[in-house]
Amino acid sequence: MRYYTKEYYKLLLSLGKVSMYEPVIDKEYSDEEIEELYQKALDKSIEEDRACYDEPPELSFEDDDDPEYLEMLKEELEAYENREPFDEEEAAENFREMYSDNLREPDPDLPDWVRESVDRRILAMYFLPEKTYRKLAAEDEANEKEFEALDEQAEEAREEMLGMIPEEFEEFMDTLEELGSCYVLSADVSDGEIELRIEGWDEEGEDAVYMFRFDGTELLENEGVEVSMHTDEDGDTFSDCELVFSELYFEDGRPEIHMMFDNNGLKYLTFRCDEVYAYRGTIQ
After folding, report:
1. Between the CA atoms of 110, 116, 119 and 123, what dihedral angle is there, to the nearest 10 degrees?
2. pLDDT tens by residue, 123-156
């Protein structure tokens, strides 16, 4: 990758972390005090969920001459007025699940020094000791300035890249960019041929799978992308691999494709090829 690098992405993920947290007194907390913090966080979460549940639908009458649109607004308003009472126990259970998940896996985007210095029970409730909060806020501000400069350079480089792409590859590049942050369903990588299947959406917003085949490939950088699928407790299937960014260049008339994946860590895949094939199908 020439501009959307690992460093760029890590910096992007680091932005605004402190905004998710609330400062608390900087001290050693007893188990009883942790329980008090837990109750405070639980009550806050329930009230935030209640406020969101009670938020009326946004109504716009810009298309008030469209009967179908007005009918849709009417249905939304009726559904809101006839909604079930707010389920406080469900909101509490959602908080308990979130807290449990955070205990098992503290936010990986937090700096190591935060995760290593703060009681994970406090982090799991989205609290931070005051000194840590202030230090992280200062770090956030510095990261934001650094990222803004880096992002400006990246955008300039991206525009230059897009301007150099032959017309017959423009749709292909548009598709790759649209599939950023989408699950990779399979990845067969070798010198000679590469095949990727990536989950995405069609023009109607329906689930679709995009299949790419690259023939005559010459691997330039391969950090070992390996896809593993798993099914959660609800029966939904997920991949441990996401396509993050893609770049496309041409060297000696051959496409040179740069990809970065989030696949148990960030991994680069860079290759040149003779032929590019891309098509879309449905997810079975």
Report:
1. 0
2. 999 999 999 999 999 999 999 999 999 999 999 9
